Amino acid sequence: MANSGKSPDFDAVVIGAGFAGLGMLRRLREELGMSVQVYETGDEVGGTWYWNRYPGARCDSESYIYCFSFSKELLQDWNWSGKYPEQPEILAYLNHVADRFDLRRNIQFNTRVTSARFLENANLWEVETDQGDRVTAQFLITAIGCISAGNVPDIKGLDSFQGEWYHTGSWPHDKVDFAGKRVAVIGTGSSGVQSIPVIAQQAGHLTVFQRTAQFTIPARHGTVDRKFLEEEVKPHYAEILEKAKWSAAGFPLDPSERSALEVTAEERLETYEAGWAKGGFGFVFGSYSDIRTDRRANDTVSEFIRSKIREMVKDPETAEKLLPTDHPFGSKRTLIDTDYFDTYNRENVELVDIRHSPIREITPKGIRTEDEEYEFDIIVFATGFDAMTGTFFKMDIRGRNDLSLKEKWSEGPKTYLGLQTAGFPNMFMITGPGSPSVLGNMPVCIEQHIEWIADFLQYMRERDIGAVEADADAEAAWVSHVNETAEPTMFMLANSWYLGANIPGKPRVFMPYAGGVGNYRKKCNEIADNGYEGFILDSGSRGKAASAT
Ligand code: NAP
User: Fold this and answer.
1) CA 269 to ligand 1 center in whole angstroms
2) Helices H / strands E in the chain, number of each
3) Residue 33: inside a domain, yes or no?
4) Domain span at 34
5) Is residue 300 assigned to a domain?
């Protein structure tokens, strides 16, 4: 239904009903009294955790810190069962949040936003969906996730495959039965490393196709430590969350300040062994400050992990193939695993190195590499995502002068703080490119954006400001800062999705902000305190929706 008068249909349209969309909806509706329409492609809330249902899917952040912080009661009431939250439980948590805060009534499910156009004369966004909706809103807020557009590589012959195939990022709701089947998994990133050990336990035979060998840290997963939760977490949640907010990566950890190069080899080994025994991201942050910035320091940890792989994998030839030697530890997303390397000791598991013998085609019966044809009943693509920009480009988003976002970002995403992009007034991105989100604990990063955006909208309302837009110079300076910050890090030394390197033809640009979650928060706050420096505030016509519901 089109809007005929001056008032928009809604104050804000939010795209997506995962962590970001749910949190934004609650905040705008409950604290700003805004009318909000959320559109969600899935038939339920959950976002990432709705789509990624593959075997073994769980989060690498520990459960007690993977949550919303806006409600003290929610923090106290919810009890996670695993040390790391598993996908069904995160989905249950998000459903609980949607019910508890009565969020569903403003969410339209099974609806994909197809286009969003800024109407310059009215300072409004016009949003269209695949269900025939056409609505206007003063604000457009994208809560579409950073890693949500699945990448199934364009391999010749996939259409001819007679078995079943799946992508980890759009896994079926019904259980996939691997029992007794010949299964292929292509890809050894986070999704592959989590699913391979679980599929191996069920499949008749599993063949893993590996392009890049990975560094991965043991998760030491298990049931949640109830004593820790009841005595050390729940009574101190406020302090824990505060610490996470100002930390480098959104975790309440005490990062080491020592250099790996200022201690003896024995001491280093002891530290790495202790971190390895404990597992998780603590291994990275608790060891040495320079393993992510100094190549010589990094060599010590990279070699330590390679020695662990040699120890864990019994067959020396397989171990050799599993050794990551072409990129330093931490240059790709740090992986956390449960029994990943042990899985290669199973009789029913085989590793194919496609770096040396690339996949040539998919045949009706399976996969043909340069050297051999393999037959399969099921192929699992754990091949990742067109991250950070892919989901934006699935929609036709147009700002001033009918400029499309795809065109504006054709050489890589350009944003101011990852929150706005010049030429697209009143459009805000939650965890957009240029923000640190994908390098940190997501809910902490998401909530910072939600709070910052809501405060900005409140500021606008109080001053009767109709539209705000990132200034092009401020944006250019931020893009340069993002690049400069990434330059000295290990991140520049691998072909990762952070750089768009996994998608043929994608511009090679480091997309997230590597300056740290806490530093980023400080910058955002300073900009707000300075009257939203770097934004153009237009006090022209203000399009408030007729009534808030
Ligand atoms: P990913 O990290 O991009 O890994 C994709 C894998 O597929 C890589 O091993 C890649 O090899 C391989 N690959 C891609 N295209 C290929 C091709 N054409 N032929 C052969 N191999 C190909 O994707 P992901 O594992 O889905 O993870 C994406 C991100 O999602 C993670 O980094 C993480 O941020 C998030 N995630 C988080 C969790 C968690 O919290 N536990 C779980 C899953 C995902 P190359 O390395 O050679 O490119």
Assistant:
1) 29
2) 17, 20
3) yes
4) 10-149+387-538
5) no
Q: Is residue 547 part of a domain?
A: no
- Between CA 467 and CA 428 the distance in angstroms is 12
Sign of CA dihedral 436, 441, 444, 447: positive
Nearest atom within ligand 1 for CA of residue 381: 7
Q: How much is the pLDDT for 545?
A: 58
Radius of gyration of the chain (CA): 24
319: left (phi over 0), alpha (psi -120 to 50) or beta: alpha
Residue 404 CA to residue 494 CA, distance in Å, equals 30
pLDDT tens digit sequence for 375-384: 999 999 999 9
Query: Which residue, judged by its Cα, is nearest atom 28 of ligand 1?
Result: 384
Q: Is residue 193 part of a domain?
A: no
Number of domains present in the structure of the chain: 1
pLDDT at position 217:
97
* β-bridge mates for residue 186, sequence order: 209, 381
Q: Give the pLDDT of residue 531.
A: 97
Please report the pLDDT score of residue 539 as a whole number.
67
Please give the model's pTM, rounded to 2 decimal places.
Answer: 0.96
- Residue nearest (by alpha carbon) to ligand 1 atom 16: 383
Compute the distance from residue 60 Cα to the ligand 1 centre, in Å.
Answer: 14
- Cα-flanking dihedrals φ and ψ of residue 89, to 5°? -75, -35
* Residue 534 CA, ligand 1 centroid: distance in Å: 35
pLDDT at 547: 43
Query: Facing residues of 13 across strands?
Result: 37, 140
Residue 333 CA: nearest ligand 1 atom is 32
93 phi-psi bin (left φ>0, alpha ψ -120 to 50, beta other): alpha
